[in-house]
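Reviewer 2 asked us to include a model.

Predict the structure of this chain.
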Amino acid sequence: MKKKVLIGLSGGLDSTITAYLLQKQGYEVIGVHFQLWTDDRAEKFSKNLPENKCCSMRDLMLARTVAKKLNIPFYIFDFRERFKKDVVDDFITKFKKGITPNPCVECNRNIKFGYFLEKMHDLGCDFVSTGHYIKNKYNSEKKRWEISGGKDIHKDQTYFLYTLTQEKLQHCLFPMAKYNKDEIREIAKENGFKSFAEKRESQGVCFYAEKSHIPFLQRHIPEAFISGNIIEKKSGKIMGEHNGILHFTKGQRARVGGCITPQYVLDIDITKNIVHIGDDCELFTQEAKLHTLSWTMNAIENNSEINVKIRHGGESLAAIFSFSDENKEEAFLKFTTPIRSITSGQSAVFYSDDGLLLGGGLMY
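Predicted model (structure tokens):
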């Protein structure tokens, strides 16, 4: 019997060609479109804003068109309530605490490779698939699934996928791994999907339409956009006034007058509505504490030398990993060189020397 695979059809190029490739490989393909939460407050601010960057009504119709062209079943999964709870509310709550979240990590953890996998089991299917450009391969010698970046280094999305466990990986198919974006566009043009090849990619966080997260936060955390003091951390001297604490991110240049040297945001105190600033050198550290650890393979051993990325697209950094508690729920990284702007709420993602994704955690 053919293996059944549920494919998340977003209405975009990558998921469309994912469905096409797997069908060509002989799988019984079932298309699924996620109905996600939309911000009902946005319309009160501007009627010209689309619902969000993806999963709009237009995207739903495009996904349905793909399913019809491929002659595959098509379903809509209503993930609105779960997406709101696990992704959007988490995003808002963390900003309220002065933490900078990464909603794409939480979406992959809870939605794309969480509830979607639950639906796979409920419907008696064997796999789920998405348009991620990553390689998922079973190592028969070591008896484990191994995940790494695909052919297109510019589309390496492993940073956002460190919450994929061995249990999940055995049910995931990623046929895009051996292609780059230009090759995918050519496949689309040659097989009746020319309009998808020319479609502009959606970028950034999906659940607000604007390029910046600031308008979204202004709608949902208006109390964080009242004036407050900008204070030099070393001296405690008030250097100026800000017009909303969430306009500021650790590491950014602080434009304040009366300073001899350039000043940068060192941290924000959400409870006191204060932005602390200082010299660039004060942003550097060689240490990071982690929580909410997740492993794609076995947990790393204490005092292991690993490669770490602290932001998507960032450079690979050498560090020593060690657990900081007996239950192995928290950890400690010691970088070989000082690192700029360790940001609370962002992910530190671990890699082996040969580029295998090992796992990751959230930084304090």
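The longest strand covers residues 284-295. Residues 103-122 form the longest helix (20 residues). We have added this to the supplementary material.
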